[in-house]
Design a protein that fits this description.
Shape of chain A: globular
Largest sheet of chain A: 7 strands, mixed
CATH architecture of the largest domain in chain A: Alpha-Beta Complex
Number of strands of chain A: 16
Number of domains of chain A: 2
CATH class of the largest domain in chain A: Alpha Beta
CATH superfamily of the largest domain in chain A: Medium-chain alcohol dehydrogenases, catalytic domain
Helix content of chain A: 25-40%
Radius of gyration of chain A: 20 Å
Order of helices and strands of chain A: EEEHEEEEHEHEHEHEHEEHEHEHE
Oligomer: homodimer
Structural class of chain A: alpha/beta
Number of helices of chain A: 9
Chain lengths: ~325, ~325
């Protein structure tokens, strides 16, 4: 009996939060390989906030998903068949593959993973895109110095947890902002954050930040935006740096929100703000990957995963990112 | 008969625009010199938008003026008496002196000017703080490359005019934003700007900017803020740079204004924004001063001054900055 391939296609571009009408979940035959292509059976699929932006049209750093074509996401899987000289059946690989059981992809877009070095899922977080995002955003834009105070929003997400741990390695005071007591306890007790603020239950985030950051804030690694950032901005020290990594508070906005104009503060205090995406640092990925793998093997960086079973549950796992469900990296176990 | 000294003291901190109650215009005896001090008779006083911020309390890059003490501003004048070995009677000097006929000041805070090299008033703009502000903000933060598009707001002010001319020297397309047809004609016809937009008469600044910047905007040198910046931000290219030099639209705000949240744009396009003040570059002032003097002597940088007669008119000349009166550098001829 011929194998079948389940796939999620983008049925229509969502306005606001994605829902059932966003996706078309279909079953097709397995793709036929062209020269230099590799057929990969997915094991784990990563869902990440930035995917929401690819669901919409418009100018961004990454091209939008195409209508009636498969959604794509970071995946680890196993090579089933290869027409590329560098890959053979049984290899474990990672790449940007379809939200599907199987994907045919040019070999150049895959990277081999050593199953013995670390859990293969780390290729989707600490040893992958989220880890590199944390590494370059914090170190290149943030330029942390010993004794400085770093605040990270979305602290319990895949990027945020690595940001905080690298900042600790660099000798900084680290304050996380996340959305549950469970998350905050994890950040403090397991990852060594100095303090953590629950933005969902606080009555006065400005006051809590002030208490958590007695020397002000030198680096803000922002995954969130909105009112959380408003509160942080007012506490930035002279010459502080803002690494703008995400604005999850706004990805589902249907119009431009209004907020306080803060540029007078940025002027008065000679502040730096830089938006970035990990691909800006493509020429340094090797450096980042090696350093992160080293810290991981030394136990200096820990991680946590939240695994949903079954490809069919990918849309809900993705929505959970916006509800703030996930403590740690949200993954989907495809089979 | 003993000479008298007229001085403007800060009588109270203004809320919104300064008015008569802000100042106390008094007459005193001439100050007595201490060791290492120099008595300077002011010839020209510079009034600049940043002084508004010094009239208020609160954290900024420069300490507030003190109540019941003289306001201060960039001044050129003549040494009347000296107890400092580096200065003697008759020297022409510049420094941050009182809004007054005479100031006693430590010699270390003065710089000698060569009357033969250029008009002494240029020490208050092209060859002084505004010129250096333009130089470092554009070159260090903006990093202009040939063929890029530079937009400067407050283009007809002392800083803006130098920004545009340096950008032309660097081979950029330069678009100014200013508040009168007369200013814009000057920018285009005399200073070589490629286009200029009148923000006071336009019905659609976004559309005008789009037409003036067919390849988008690579560098925005912002002196103004507010809705002008909102329009510019939406046209910034990937990896564009914003040198945040002033926010004159907001200096008289009595509360934080609301505006569109724009950080998603900064994220999507990997934009850089940096607030700065010329003193951040103190260790490179010599480099900037020499280069600016060279360009001035070569005729590559031109200037225009707007001189008000009489120290007693300094408050009105200062207010004119916020009305947008001045084409070119606003100066007060003290005597």
């Amino acid at each position: 009996m011929a194998k079948k391939n389940r796939q999620f296609l983008l049925a229509e571009r969502p306005v606001g939060l994605p829902d059932d009408s966003t996706y078309n979940f279909i079953e097709t035959d397995l793709p036929k390989l062209k020269e230099n292509e590799v057929l990969v059976q997915g094991e784990y699929l990563s869902v990440d906030p930035y995917m929401r932006r690819r669901m919409s049209e418009g100018q961004s750093y990454i091209e939008p998903f195409k209508l009636n074509e498969p959604l794509k996401g970071g995946t680890v899987g196993t090579v089933i068949e290869s027409k590329h000289p560098s890959f053979q059946q049984g290899d474990t690989v990672t790449g940007l593959l379809d939200w599907a059981d199987y994907t045919a992809v040019p070999g150049e877009q895959l990277r081999k993973i050593d199953r013995d070095q670390a859990s293969i899922t780390t290729a989707l977080h600490v040893n992958g895109m989220p880890g590199l995002t944390a590494y370059f955003g914090l170190l290149d834009i943030g330029q942390p110095k010993e004794g400085e105070t770093v605040v990270v929003s979305g602290a319990a997400g895949a990027v945020g947890m690595v940001v905080g741990q690298i900042a600790k390695i660099k000798g900084c005071r680290v304050v996380g902002i996340a959305g549950s007591e469970e998350k905050n306890a994890y950040l403090i007790n397991e990852l060594g954050f100095d303090a953590a603020i629950n933005y969902k239950t606080t009555n006065n985030i400005g006051q809590e930040l002030k208490e958590a950051c007695p020397n002000g804030i030198d680096i803000y690694f922002d995954n969130v935006g909105g009112e959380i950032s408003d509160a942080v901005f007012s506490l930035l020290n002279f010459h502080a740096r803002v690494a703008l990594c995400g604005q999850i508070a706004h990805y589902n906005d249907t119009k431009v929100e209004m907020g306080p104009r803060f540029l007078t503060t940025f002027l008065k205090r000679s502040l730096l703000l830089k938006g970035f995406i990990v691909t800006n640092y493509s020429d340094r990925h090797e450096e980042g990957t090696q350093q992160l793998a080293k810290w991981l093997s030394e136990g200096k960086i820990k991680y946590k995963e939240n695994i949903v079973e079954g490809l069919e549950n990918a849309p809900d796992a993705f929505l959970g990112l916006f509800r703030g469900d996930n403590l740690g990296k949200q993954l989907v176990k495809i089979r």
